[in-house]
TrEMBL record:
GO cellular component, one term: plasma membrane
Domain Major facilitator superfamily (MFS) profile: 10-422
Protein name: MFS transporter
Subcellular location: Membrane
Length: 422
């Protein structure tokens, strides 16, 4: 017999959303706030500065490592205990990083910290989709995207300022304390959505955990061409942005000789554009279906990437590079949450497993692609980065075209003034 979900009070709804937003922000901030200090980290450990992008790549790999298992475990035992355990793991890894004594230990702890990102993708995102209706869920995903993007927007600036008074080790201590506070908020406010009968009559029943059954479900899911195309497109569309985050310290600080504060300031136009795209998405949701929104987003997305490619051929100044990245980022902000929603519901399987598969595929593409762009010279010249980032982003178009060709979604209903979240 399923439990009945008692109507969630508005205070708990707000606390739940803020707690998830806080955890997501921390999982990204653990990377971005440290980027201005990465040259100091490699210097302290006598490591090659070319290892700077590896810190981001390993963090993304960590986000993939356990997603394949986290999703099915959340389907079986519930979203709440899994997210609480993920938040605790992240906090412990941050505390341990403050005492690391070698670059190898540092990278290992970066990998473990990245697993927190896997919990965000495989547990908190499906929980939001199950608690809220479609229109509200897409809006919240877009808003969470804005929260996550505050990290690369403000993280380098905040990191640059904090490094005036704190060491990079003390930054990790602050992240660990923040994770403990977020854990308490999740414990107090997060509802369970698995095995709970909601007032709308729908239920996400627990799914028995079986290795053979899990492998079979993943095999079926990976045989779904529409799902695979959408997941690949999600990773490739974000790859230029991820590559920029990874190599920006090398390009701006080491190559161009900018200060850490100037490095942080140059991030503002790019990530402000993504946030602006998410806000545009929110305004267009009531009058456009999701495939149409993605088609509209492709105009600034493609124009920005083509400008990047032109800059690579004709010679890229920093201003032109940032302008092209910002235009591309605007399109990415409009399309990302809509494409994620379509990908999540392109399969009838449980949303924990589907979300985990989306995360594994897209984050693997971003992590491997970012490392490849750095390895072939993306961190040594502006023109080289512009060329490879543009090509990577444009590679998403064939998969996206095939996916959208079969996508049909009804217009989203307008939100009611008062909504029962039960």
């Amino acid at each position: 017999m399923h439990r009945t979900l008692i109507a969630i009070q508005p205070v708990q709804v707000i606390g739940f959303c803020l707690a998830i937003a806080g955890f997501e922000l921390l999982t990204y901030m653990a990377s971005d706030i440290l980027m201005p200090a990465m040259l100091a980290v490699t210097g302290e450990f006598n490591a090659d500065p070319r290892q700077v992008p590896n810190a981001l790549s390993l963090y993304l790999v960590g986000g993939v490592c356990l997603q394949w298992l986290i999703g099915p475990l959340a389907d079986r035992f519930g979203r709440r205990p899994l997210l609480l355990s993920g938040c605790a793991l992240f906090g412990i890894a941050c505390a341990a990083a403050s005492a690391s004594t070698s670059i190898e230990a540092f990278h290992l702890l970066r990998l473990i910290q990245g697993m927190g990102l896997g919990y965000v993708v495989a547990v908190s995102y499906p929980a939001l989709q199950e608690v809220f209706c479609e229109a509200d869920a897409v809006r919240l995903m877009a808003l969470l995207g804005n929260v996550a993007l505050l990290s690369p927007l403000l993280g380098p600036l905040l990191g640059s300022l904090l490094l005036e008074w704190l060491s990079w080790r003390q930054l990790f201590v602050a992240l660990a304390v923040s994770a403990a506070l977020v854990w308490l908020a999740l414990y107090a406010c997060m509802p369970e959505t698995v095995g709970v009968l909601r007032r709308d009559g729908q239920v996400q029943a627990p799914i028995a955990f079986s290795w053979r059954h899990i492998l079979r479900r993943y095999r079926v899911l990976l045989g779904n061409r529409r799902f695979l195309g959408a997941s690949l497109a999600l990773g490739l569309m974000s790859l230029p942005l991820i590559a920029w985050i990874g190599v920006a310290p090398l390009l701006l600080i080491q190559l161009l000789g900018l200060s850490t504060l100037e490095y942080g300031l140059w991030q503002i136009p790019v990530f402000s554009a993504v946030i602006g795209g998410n806000l545009i998405l929110d305004r267009l949701l009531l009058s456009h279906d999701l495939p149409r929104l993605i088609h509209l987003a492709l105009w600034p997305y493609c124009l920005g990437l083509l400008t990047l490619m032109g800059a690579a051929v004709l010679g890229a100044s920093l201003g032109v590079l940032i302008g092209a990245l910002s235009l591309y980022a605007l399109g990415l902000g409009i399309s990302n949450a809509a494409l994620y929603r379509l990908a999540l519901f392109s399969s009838d399987d449980s949303k924990g497993l589907v979300s985990a598969a989306i995360g594994m595929i897209s984050i693997t593409v971003m992590g491997a692609g970012g490392s490849l762009i750095a390895a072939i010279g993306g961190g040594s010249q502006l023109e080289s980065f512009a060329l490879w980032a543009a090509l990577a982003g444009l590679l998403a178009l064939p998969s996206l075209y095939r996916f959208l060709r079969g996508a049909t979604t009804a217009l989203l209903p307008p939100p009611t003034p008062k909504r029962n979240f039960g």
